[in-house]
Specification:
Elements: H1 2-24, E1 29-32, E2 35-42, E3 59-63, E4 65-66, H2 90-93, E5 113-114, E6 121-130, E7 138-143, E8 146-147, E9 149-154, E10 157-163, E11 169-172, E12 180-189, E13 214-215, E14 219-224, E15 227-237, E16 242-251, E17 257-267, E18 275-285, E19 289-297, E20 313-321, E21 326-333, E22 338-341, E23 344-347, E24 350-352, E25 354-359, H3 373-385, E26 390-393, H4 400-409, E27 412-414, H5 433-448, E28 456-458, H6 467-481, E29 486-488, E30 505-507, H7 526-529, E31 536-541, E32 560-561, H8 563-574, H9 581-604, E33 611-614, H10 643-647, E34 653-658, E35 663-665, E36 669-678, E37 684-687, E38 689-695, E39 700-705, E40 709-711, E41 714-725, E42 733-741, E43 747-755, E44 767-769, H11 774-781, E45 785-789, E46 821-826, H12 847-850, E47 856-857, E48 869-873, E49 881-882, E50 884-889, E51 892-897, H13 909-922, H14 935-940
Parallel strand pairs: 25-26, 25-33, 26-27, 28-29, 30-31, 31-33, 35-43, 44-45, 45-51
Antiparallel strand pairs: 1-14, 2-3, 2-6, 4-13, 5-32, 6-12, 7-11, 7-14, 8-13, 9-10, 9-12, 15-16, 16-19, 17-18, 17-20, 20-21, 22-23, 23-24, 34-36, 36-41, 37-40, 38-39, 38-42, 42-43, 46-48, 47-49, 50-51
Helix pairs in contact: 3-4
Domain Glycosyl hydrolases family 2 sugar binding: 32-215
Pfam families: Glyco_hydro_2, Glyco_hydro_2_N
InterPro entries: Bact_Beta-galactosidase, Beta-gal/glucu_dom_sf, Galactose-bd-like_sf, GH, Glyco_hydro_2_N, Ig-like_fold, Ig-like_GH2
């Protein structure tokens, strides 16, 4: 039933798309081909030789759609030959995962699981009636998003073969085609063959959209004039207030034709419609083709396109031949100029900072991209609600609907050629892919080049091969051919060679948080980008993970199921933590959001930094399951941060604070510098900026205003300083400092922690030790209390590396590269924290406590045991971990900390305060541990390694873990 609903939704979308086709080709006649087709799988490649195009195929299938949607193909088994790299093969071999490998309970962790899987040849067939009035017309079969190589027969005549990932495949039918009934047969093959773009390319990999077989976009036959517009490209010129219109005409080679072309244009989404005066020019066609270049004045008043005011025009080109033949084409375009000026981007002469996300082709209901404008408008509007203005498409090009939607919403796009030429392929080595990249990017610019949102382009993602030579030529080719956008050879990590003629850089290297040191908000990425003389955009920024949201599983009502989530959920239950799943999500999510905030702010305060591309705003379901988004794979919020909250630090205008640390003692002074990054529509004149410091109850402790200042369109705008003496804070406290640009939506805030410089000396009645020695056992046996500082002594859990930062991308894809944890979980209401203000999650005050601290693996502790402070493990292993725990041992009571908590701490006020709070707790009548644990079970933490050890069973590794390639 769910599949049928999905197909019905697709039918509605296809109908809307066909309405668009009629509106843009008003003089053409169209026959829709959506609906039921005959079908047959050709797993043995016997159909061509057996002339299946001459037979009636026995099965049926609904198009547009994929084979998997129609439940065609092979069942998923352990032997399914996936399209995509697997760097962690433990699923196939590890004994603890055996139950997920059994038929009936097959759950794979690498990516979402489709209903069916098939790579190979498949045949599709449909009968059509060619109307009598189509005689002497040019008839074209159009298949949008056929995946991927398509051969076409009409009756017994083969029409041609096309192979593309980026545009509709159009086949011109024979000119002498008779009216009446005909049979159209398609042979679609989705295997990687001679042209290998790379098995992990997002244009075809099972990591993302899936390597599906079928046709999912518009499908129709269209009859039009034999004299027609083959191509129209519009090149805006803002200075001249005109547009150069380049037209390619075609006609049957036997026709020598002349006539006239009329151009008219009108804005269609502006408050007041702007009608451009039409012009008419003659044309002549000889030998079947002609190219015209027409200067089209746009009038004295032009509407320009950008993120703030995405004004668009519709150009109507009408051809009237001398013999009465007609053709008409409508083109959507915007008057805009996107260029690089020195180290900055400019849109229409104004600086622009790209606040972007990477789109990895995540479409969890279908496995292939949405083909309707409304779905893409939703994606861009959600992105804008989070303060973004830019989207990169990782090794794939979206369908036309995405460009239309981006134009309407005002979004700067970087589509790419459909290749990640690294895993199993390369560029510049004479392979077929070398020419294919040129062919594909030419198809992209021909079909989508007029869309104002198409501002940037790259070959694709992180290649190998003779990349410098190849991509340098690629850039030169495109810079000479089309000036409407900027070009970079490839989007790459920091170890890839620099392509010297890039017009902008999309690179890693200037990203990340150096939280091996104390967190601060002063450092920048200036040194990392000083070598570049063109605009710099951070490649795949962030990649901070949160724990899986198991409530999301019910959303998978389409072709794909979240068997990976099911597996993680069951494994969590097997480790006696099923009831903590939601808490793990919320606490890890809060840390994830904190990391994104600080990294984005660091980028915004860096001079000559020009943008970032998050990887990504929403989750990525492949490559081991990368839960790096503050949104899920459906672009929905997960509950721990709202779009409004995210937008405070990721917006066109963002107040920024410069402080050397976030944790203070009350004998210090909070000295903070305030600056603003402003990339709005215009300068903010006489901006009034105010600030306030509040405690957790909302009481204002201090406030002030800065002198009014005009904010130009740039970053690093110095506003002033805030100075606040902390000696009035007598007890441990969390404070919040907020900076607001009055009268606007622009505001930002930061939390600080203040602790007493001198803590009271407590008389304690417990035995403090740094080893579980005989004296500790004696105290416990006699009913006493022990505090064990086990820092550096842990064996069971020693393999788990904890830093303040959460897991990067995910531990499976990166073969358990540290860190392995996702922050901490605790209960703020626990009396152990009575004198240590905290939320349930990691915040800045926890850095000096948890960063690089060992964790304890409680694999042998009683079922249901929960520690006072619980590190959240990677969801691939779900180990029950502890940083601080309490238990009844023998007749006594024990607290164990693998974080360094002691009476002798220096320059660690948060750790001192936590130890003080624990001391008071242990001396109070509230200290009554719930669980009893055997002494030897506790002792085993310091003697025996964990029973569960990670083994990838795979020798290969992702690019980031391989030796750095040499420049060529």
């Amino acid at each position: 039933m769910q599949i049928k609903i999905l197909l019905f939704t697709k039918w509605i979308a296809a109908t809307i798309c066909l309405i668009a086709v009629f509106s843009t080709c008003s003089l053409a006649q169209t026959i829709s081909l959506k609906g039921k087709w005959r079908f047959k799988i050709d797993a043995k490649d016997e159909g061509v030789k057996a002339k299946w195009y001459s037979s009636v195929l026995p099965e049926s299938i609904n198009l547009p759609g994929s084979m998997a949607e129609n439940l065609k193909g092979d069942d998923i088994t352990l032997k399914t030959k996936w399209t995509g790299s697997i760097y962690d093969s433990s699923y196939y071999f590890h004994p603890r995962l055996e139950k997920y490998r059994k038929p009936g309970n097959l759950k794979i962790p690498f990516w979402l699981t489709p209903a069916k899987h098939y790579t190979g040849a498949a045949w599709y067939q449909k009968d059509v009636d060619i109307p009598a009035n189509w005689q002497e017309k040019r008839v074209v079969l159009s298949l949008e998003y056929s995946h991927s190589e398509t051969r076409v027969w009409v009756d017994d005549v083969e029409i041609g073969t096309q192979f593309t990932f980026v545009v509709a495949q159009n086949f011109e039918l024979p000119a002498n085609l008779k009216t009446g009934k005909h049979t159209i047969t398609l042979l679609i093959d989705n295997r990687i063959k001679a042209i290998n773009v790379g098995q992990d390319s997002h244009s075809l990999t099972d990591h993302t959209q899936g390597n599906w077989n079928g046709v999912v976009g518009k499908m129709f036959l269209q009859a039009g004039s034999p004299v027609y517009f083959e191509d129209i490209q519009v090149y805006p010129d803002l200075k001249k207030k005109s547009a150069k219109v380049k037209i390619e005409l075609k006609a049957n080679s036997t026709i020598s034709s002349g006539g006239k072309i009329t151009l008219s244009a009108k804005s269609f989404n502006t408050k007041n419609s702007i009608q451009v005066k039409s012009i008419t020019v003659p044309y002549q066609i000889k030998n079947g083709t002609n190219i015209l270049e027409i200067d089209f004045p746009m009038g004295d008043k032009i509407a320009t396109w950008d993120e703030f005011d995405p004004a668009l025009y519709r150009l109507t080109a009408t051809l009237l031949a001398n013999d009465g033949k007609k053709d008409q084409k409508e083109i959507q375009f915007g008057m805009r100029e996107f260029k690089a000026v020195g180290r900055s981007f400019e849109i229409n002469g104004r600086p622009v900072f790209l606040r972007g996300t990477v789109n990895n082709c995540e479409f969890p209901l279908t496995g292939y991209p949405s083909m309707d404008v409304a779905a893409w408008e939703r994606i861009f509007k959600i992105s804008k609600a989070h303060g973004l203005n830019h989207m990169r498409f990782h090794s794939w090009c979206p369908p036309e609907a995405a460009f239309i939607a981006a134009d309407l919403t005002g979004f700067y796009l970087q589509p790419e050629g459909p290749s990640w030429a690294n895993h199993g392929t390369s560029i510049g080595d004479g392979k077929p892919i070398d020419q294919f990249i040129y062919d594909e990017t030419n198809r992209m610019t021909k079909n989508y080049g007029n869309y104002a949102s198409f501002c940037m382009m790259a070959y694709g993602n992180e290649p190998r091969g003779r990349q410098v030579e190849y991509l340098t030529k690629f850039n030169n080719y495109w810079k000479a051919k089309d000036s409407r956008r900027l070009y970079t050879g490839a989007s790459v990590g920091g170890s890839w060679p620099v392509i010297p003629n890039n017009e902008f850089m999309v690179r890693a290297g200037a990203r990340g948080l150096d939280w091996g040191k104390k967190p601060e908000s002063i450092s920048t990425y200036a040194k990392q980008i000083e070598q570049f003389t063109v605009p710099f955009v951070a490649h795949e920024m962030g990649q901070y993970c949160a724990f899986p949201n198991f409530e999301e599983m019910k959303k998978y009502t389409g072709v794909y199921k979240a068997r990976n989530f099911e597996m993680f959920q069951e494994d969590l239950a097997d480790h006696n933590m099923a009831d903590q799943a939601k808490d793990f999500l919320m606490s890890s999510g809060k840390l994830q959001a904190l990391c994104y905030k600080n990294e984005i702010e660091k980028a915004l305060r860096t001079p000559n930094y020009n943008g970032y591309q998050l990887l990504s705003l929403n989750d990525y379901p492949g490559q081991g399951t990368a839960l790096v988004g503050v949104l899920d794979a459906f672009w929905d919020e997960k509950g721990y941060i709202t779009a409004k909250e995210f937008k405070r630090f990721s917006n066109s205008t963002v107040p920024l604070l410069k402080v050397p640390k976030f944790v203070y003692t009350n004998n210090e002074t909070l000295d903070a510098g305030v600056e603003v990054a402003h990339f709005g529509q215009a300068s903010l004149t006489n901006a009034k900026i105010s600030w306030s410091i509040k405690d957790v109850t909302g009481i204002v402790l201090a406030k002030g205003n800065f002198a009014k200042k005009t904010l130009p369109v740039t970053n690093c705008i110095q506003i002033g300083n805030i100075r606040f003496e902390l000696n009035t804070i007598k007890k441990a406290a969390k404070l919040n400092l907020e900076v607001v640009i009055d009268g606007t939506e622009f505001a930002n805030d930061w939390s600080f922690w203040v602790y007493p410089a001198e803590l009271p000396k407590l008389k304690t009645n417990f035995y403090y030790t740094n080893k579980l020695d005989e004296q500790a056992k004696k105290v416990l046996d006699e009913g006493g209390t022990v505090f064990l500082n086990a820092a550096g002594k842990v064996v069971k859990g020693k393999e788990v590396v904890q830093t303040f930062l959460p897991v990067f991308w995910n531990t499976s894809w990166f073969k358990m590269r540290p860190p392995h944890t996702l922050g901490i979980l605790c209960d703020p209401k626990n009396p152990a924290f009575a004198n240590f203000p905290t939320e349930s999650y990691s915040n800045m005050q926890w850095w000096e406590i948890v960063n690089k601290a060992q964790v304890m693996n409680l694999e042998d502790f009683p079922s249901g045991f929960k520690p006072i402070i619980q590190p959240i493990d990677t969801w691939f292993l779900n180990r029950r971990l502890a940083l601080v725990l309490e238990a009844r041992v023998g007749k006594g009571k024990l607290v164990v900390s693998s974080a360094n908590l002691s009476p002798d701490l220096k320059d660690a006020p948060a750790a001192q305060q936590l130890y003080f709070s624990l001391q008071q707790y242990m001396s109070s009548d509230k200290f009554n541990p719930k669980y009893e644990v055997a002494f030897n079970t506790v002792k085993d933490i310091f003697e025996s390694p964990s029973k569960l050890q990670f083994d990838t069973f795979t020798k290969d590794s992702p690019d980031e873990l391989k030796p750095k390639p040499k420049s060529n």
